[in-house]
């Protein structure tokens, strides 16, 4: 297949063996650079300006007839049972209070919400919060009464309890303010029912004795766990950060150092290769044994035993295929191991390169904060529509039909009101554009990092005296990319962002089709999303090769993509071997950094905070999560470094004679051994067979 593709593209001007230019001993990476794909960088800056314009229009700073002014409070504010947004809507209750100055929503036993000025700080079963009409009725009834004070208090309490039994009043329960809602710390339905029943039969004193144990029992589940967990995290937050970030960075550098030691990387790779083969054979043997037991069991369906029996032979077949692939690629795997080892050496000489992904994360966070503000105002610019959730015959149905709303405009009894935002077409397009801007910018930041790492590794490779390569080389790579190749990063990221935006649109359409129960459309859209996912993976792979070409030769994105594509064709087996080996190394690195950080953090917490923490495993799990994120940064740098080393080696091999090459000694030894084997076989067969198959130029050398 590779030969057919090569024959079809062999006449392309970019598909040829690289030649050394007449510039003395100067390597290609030291060529005179010029700005590449400037128009794409200008387009990216213009997209940011347009995004800012959309955001300012949504914030009301800029007047626009297409985008309404938003208010993020509308997204988080609770909505009472009349459909008013607490703290946003100007609605005067029958008692004369304005919901504009009542920013919190307090729940009723019925599920309704009422607006209050603040969430209760303490639990008091003698004080109640009621629906607006009920509260107005009670205030009016006892406001004009001439009863004695103690009699009035008892009568009012009895009336409150009566309405609480009808789920129209709620005792004041200690609550936590979350966004625009009051979240009680107790399970209110059980407490209120017990409170109501006990109050009607006993005194207030006895009712308190009944309700409090129930409240403490209810609070010991979710709320108590949350409080204890937050207390633990606050107590050991610096330990989590220290072991999750600091320890994982140290372990990452230790892992890079281990990869440079003779024999360690070979042991990792070949043990992993053998472990995969042994695992497949063991799984097949186990499956066959279990299938035999199931076949003898009268209570087991025979089709399950048969399926497991055939699955065992499939596993055996996969083990054989894996063995044949390894045997076929064994020499190229040796070359790939050498590439990984040299990449580790390059990273070790420039330690600052491992911290650059952290700078990328900070840049993305800064952009996301601004973008999130714009999106929040835009999302709150739609019309708030009151919907009623009612229990229908088929379950819970959400509808806008008039038959579930009373004449006063709110839901009938048995239905719960909730809000939904309805957006105009212009607002939807503006939101889609903001999503596209975020996708493009995030991919641009990733592409910039790949270019910087690739250029730094290229400068290391094409250096006769690598002992002089320090962090200053990485700084120089960062300067060159920032000065000349940000447009190339913008171009490559634009391609990925377009594909991601199409996938986002398909996901939106798929959700709409699922709500409309269009199953065929849902399946077709799922297939399209899978195809786009495959396209995205292929484009990211080609982009990575293109960025290396830009780093080495200073090409623009289109030319670098073509040259990278043809380089893949000329070295398909090499690149496949490097991909397999690098994935194994990356996996081992993730496991090493994550597990070692989590285990060391666990022992430190056990020794120093063992008696103070409620849950020892929760901070340990957070240490593991943070360490895994740090390992992802190391793996991204290592993967890009390995890809760059391989391309630099191919360029070095094609452009320079053996005595002029920049290849390190380990790579030279690997290539020399494979070349000797190749020419030995070629001489043995040349006398018997005059017609040979066409072989790729680069593949013949390794």
From TrEMBL:
Keywords: Glycoprotein, Membrane, Transmembrane, Transmembrane helix. Residues 9-23 have a biased composition (Basic and acidic residues). Pfam families: Choline_transpo. The chain crosses the membrane at residues 41-62, 238-261, 268-287, 307-329, 350-374, 430-462, 474-498, 518-535, 572-593, 613-630. One of its GO terms (cellular component) is plasma membrane. Residues 1-26 are annotated as: Disordered. Belongs to the CTL (choline transporter-like) family. This is Choline transporter-like protein.
């Amino acid at each position: 297949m590779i030969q057919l593709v090569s024959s079809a593209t062999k006449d392309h001007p970019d598909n040829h063996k690289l030649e050394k230019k007449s510039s003395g001993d100067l390597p290609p990476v030291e060529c005179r650079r010029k700005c590449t794909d400037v128009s794409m960088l200008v387009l990216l800056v213009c997209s940011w300006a347009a995004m800012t314009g959309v955001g300012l229009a949504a914030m009301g700073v800029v007047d626009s007839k297409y985008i309404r002014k938003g208010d993020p409070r509308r997204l988080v504010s609770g909505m009472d049972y009349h459909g008013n947004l607490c703290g946003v809507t100007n609605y005067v209750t029958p008692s004369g209070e304005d919901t504009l100055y009542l920013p919190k929503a307090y729940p009723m036993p019925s599920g309704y919400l009422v607006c209050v000025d603040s969430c209760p700080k303490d639990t008091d079963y003698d004080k109640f919060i009621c629906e607006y009409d009920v509260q107005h009725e009670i205030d009016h009834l006892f406001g004009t009464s001439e009863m004695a004070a103690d009699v009035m208090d008892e009568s009012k309490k009895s009336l409150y309890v009566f309405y609480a039994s009808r789920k129209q009043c709620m005792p004041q329960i200690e609550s936590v303010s979350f966004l625009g809602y009051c979240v009680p710390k107790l399970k209110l339905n059980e407490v209120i029912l017990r409170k109501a029943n006990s109050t009607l039969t006993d005194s207030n004193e006895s009712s308190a004795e009944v309700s409090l144990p129930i409240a403490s029992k209810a609070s010991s589940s979710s709320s108590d766990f949350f409080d204890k967990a937050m207390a633990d995290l606050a107590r050991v937050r610096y330990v989590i950060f220290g072991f999750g970030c600091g320890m994982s960075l140290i372990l990452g550098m230790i892992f890079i150092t281990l990869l440079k030691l003779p024999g360690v990387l070979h042991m990792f790779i070949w043990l992993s290769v053998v472990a995969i083969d042994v695992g497949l054979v063991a799984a097949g043997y186990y499956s066959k044994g279990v299938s035999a037991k199931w076949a003898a069991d009268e209570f087991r369906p025979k089709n399950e035993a048969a399926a497991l029996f055939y699955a065992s032979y499939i596993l055996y077949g996969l083990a054989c295929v894996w063995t044949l692939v390894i045997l076929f690629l064994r020499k190229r795997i040796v070359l790939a191991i050498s590439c990984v080892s040299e990449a580790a050496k390059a990273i070790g000489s420039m330690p600052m390169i491992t911290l650059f992904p952290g700078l990328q994360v900070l840049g993305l966070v800064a952009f996301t904060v601004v973008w999130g503000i714009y999106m929040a105002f835009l999302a709150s610019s739609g019309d708030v529509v009151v919907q009623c959730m009612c229990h229908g015959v088929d379950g819970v149905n959400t509808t806008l039909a008039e038959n579930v709303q009373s004449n006063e405009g709110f839901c009938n009894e048995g239905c719960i009101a909730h809000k939904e935002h309805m957006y105009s077409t212009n607002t939807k397009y503006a939101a889609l554009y903001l999503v596209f801007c975020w996708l493009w910018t995030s991919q641009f930041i990733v592409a910039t990092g790949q270019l910087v790492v690739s250029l730094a590794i290229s400068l290391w490779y094409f250096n006769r005296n690598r002992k002089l390569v320090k962090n200053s080389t990485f700084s120089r790579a960062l300067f060159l990319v920032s000065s000349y190749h940000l447009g190339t990063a913008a171009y490559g990221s634009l391609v990925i962002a377009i594909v991601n935006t199409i996938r986002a649109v398909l996901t939106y359409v798929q959700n709409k089709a699922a709500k409309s129960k269009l199953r065929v459309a849902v399946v077709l859209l799922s297939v399209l999303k899978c195809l786009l996912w495959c396209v995205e993976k292929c484009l990211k792979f080609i982009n990575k090769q293109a960025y290396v070409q830009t780093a080495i030769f200073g090409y623009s994105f289109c030319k670098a993509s073509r040259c990278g594509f043809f380089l893949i064709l000329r070295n398909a087996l090499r690149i496949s071997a490097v991909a397999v080996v690098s994935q194994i190394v990356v996996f081992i690195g993730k496991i090493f950094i994550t597990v070692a950080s989590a285990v060391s953090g666990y022992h430190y917490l056990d020794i120093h905070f063992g008696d103070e923490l409620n849950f020892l495993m929760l901070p340990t799990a957070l240490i593991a999560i943070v360490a895994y994120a740090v390992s992802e940064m190391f793996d991204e740098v290592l993967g890009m470094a390995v890809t760059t080393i391989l391309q630099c080696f191919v360029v070095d091999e094609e452009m320079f004679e053996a005595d002029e090459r920049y290849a390190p000694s380990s790579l030279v030894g690997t290539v020399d051994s494979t070349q000797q084997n190749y020419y030995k076989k070629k001489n043995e067969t040349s006398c018997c067979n005059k017609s040979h198959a066409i072989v790729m130029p680069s593949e013949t050398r390794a």
